[in-house]
């Protein structure tokens, strides 16, 4: 029975992706700035540059106000993740782009911050999904096999990046 349910969920997720082949969007609430954005970043086979600029702004280093390009494939991972869990809710953003200065400051105060963090490249984001258990979100993110996934139980967030597939 579980196998049938799992197969049905996989077919449903694929169907949702197919239905959204012409439009992909993600929603964010930044936990530090309070900013909100729903971004239809992909339309009819093309990324939307003006929308990507809005995403870059919301996902900036909130400590230094530095804006950096966010990897559009990171948005694709988030879109697929949200589709697979069947949610239209906003991702709560804990951290996205981090300037080298911010990354070094965080590295000095925590042993969980990588010296060459993918956050500094705009290729990583730390999130939770409103009304969805974070441990399950991490499991679903791992199942995508689309990059790095870290689960931080104590801080209640999932790190997702577009690097090589790895888990922690």
How would you describe this protein?
The structure is a single chain. The chain has 168 residues and is of the alpha+beta class. It has one domain: 2-Layer Sandwich (Muramoyl-pentapeptide Carboxypeptidase, domain 2), CATH 3.30.1380. 38% of the residues lie in helices and 24% in strands. It contains five helices and eight strands; from the N terminus they run H-E-E-E-H-H-E-H-E-H-E-E-E. An eight-stranded mixed sheet has the order 3-2-1-4-5-7-6-8. A hairpin with a 2-residue loop joins strand 2 (36-43) and strand 3 (46-47). The relative contact order is 0.14. Residues 1-19 have low confidence and may be disordered.
Keywords for this entry:
single chain, 168 residues, alpha+beta, Muramoyl-pentapeptide Carboxypeptidase, domain 2
Strand content: 15-25%
Q: Tally the beta strands.
A: 8
Report the CATH topology name: Muramoyl-pentapeptide Carboxypeptidase, domain 2
Gross morphology is globular
Count of alpha and pi helical runs? 5
**Largest sheet geometry:** 8 strands, mixed
Mean pLDDT: 89
In CATH, the architecture is: 2-Layer Sandwich
Percent helix among the residues? Answer: 25-40%
| Radius of gyration, whole Å | 16 Å
Work out the count of structural domains.
Answer: 1
Write the H/E string, N to C: HEEEHHEHEHEEE
Based on secondary structure, the structural category is alpha+beta
> How far do the termini sit from each other?
30 Å
> Strand sequence of the main sheet, in spatial order?
3-2-1-4-5-7-6-8
- CATH secondary-structure class: Alpha Beta
Query: Which parts are unreliable, with pLDDT below 50 for 5 consecutive residues or more?
Result: 1-19
């Amino acid at each position: 029975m579980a196998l049938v349910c799992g197969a049905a969920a996989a077919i449903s997720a694929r169907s949702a992706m197919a239905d959204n082949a012409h439009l992909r969007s993600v929603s964010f609430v930044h936990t530090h700035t309070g900013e909100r954005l729903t971004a239809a970043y992909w339309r009819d086979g093309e990324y939307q540059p003006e929308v990507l600029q809005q995403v870059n702004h919301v996902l900036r280093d909130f400590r230094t106000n530095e804006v950096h390009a966010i990897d559009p494939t990171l948005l694709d991972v988030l879109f697929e993740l949200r589709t697979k869990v069947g949610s239209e809710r906003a991702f709560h953003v804990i951290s996205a782009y981090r300037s080298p200065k911010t990354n070094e400051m965080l590295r000095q105060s925590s042993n969980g911050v990588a010296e060459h963090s993918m956050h500094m490249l705009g290729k990583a984001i730390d999130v939770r999904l409103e009304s969805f258990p974070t441990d399950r979100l991490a499991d679903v993110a791992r199942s995508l096999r689309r990059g790095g996934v870290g689960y931080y139980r104590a801080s209640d967030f999932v790190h997702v990046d577009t690097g090589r597939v790895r888990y922690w």
